[in-house]
Amino acid sequence: xxxxxxxxxxxxxxxxxxxxxxxxxxxVDLLEVSRRTLFRDLNELESIGVPYYYDNQAGGxxxxxxxxxxxxxxxxxxxxxxxxxxxxxxxxxxxxxKKSAVMGGIKIENNLxxxxxxxxxxxxxxxxxxxxxxxxVGPAEKTFWILQRAVGRKFRVKIVYSSLYDGGDIETVxxxxxxxxxxxxxxxxxxxxxxxxxxxxxxxxIKEITVMDKCYIPxxxxxxxxxxxxxxxxxxxxxxxxxxxxxSRMVAKNVAEVLWHKSQKTRFNDDxxxxxxxxxxxxxxxxxxxxxxxxxxxxxxxxxxxxxxxxIAKKAAKINS
Length: 321
Prior knowledge:
The chain is an alpha+beta fold.
């Protein structure tokens, strides 16, 4: 067997040992093989003495869960936490990553004692995580994987990018330093040749990408946290503002219970209202968050932000009157 086939058969064995029944269609989809290849791999398992069988009642293949793989030393809470991350926390991952997460989860389950496995399954059936709306990776799946490899191997890429800032398509050579999920979408951060500085590009807006034959030398002083700095979310404007807001009693607790920014400071007034203070780079992004609270928030400082909010509110009132 070739190495790739060995790897595939190990994956097949792992799936069968999960203790669940897997139909032919399930196995074909998870392993990304044809039905003919699947049955050839099943025959290979049979030839080396792996005791799988077809469960007519369940309509799928099974393997004795006590066969071959030993238990690993995870306690109940550790097992539950890991499986929760895999099953409930992978909504923003590309399809291929989700599939890898499923395979990883199955491997972990295979090695759990029966009692812990049953507890985890019963508990996770009663837990759900509702994820925020986000930009789906699907249309940019190929671009995502090209960038992931380029980041890992330090290869330069040439991209055609639909830039909102530049008002159209731009072409640039990018040294991709880092990939991040932020503000409901996936981004790549790196040094752009036409900007001659480190920029952030939304992966879904990359229209064309080509991996070049040249490697880059990463900047020693690049740090992703420093790159985003004190921006409210992602976009720094190069000027620090001390923002002070007063929220009404109606929304005060709602605001206070969430950490919106790393610089956040809050205190309640005697009347139940809330004073929230932030130190942010730029007022563009935070202004849209403030507007979401409508007439339940007052901008105390700075004056530039107060005027900006008033102007937008006035325009919105005119449009909707």
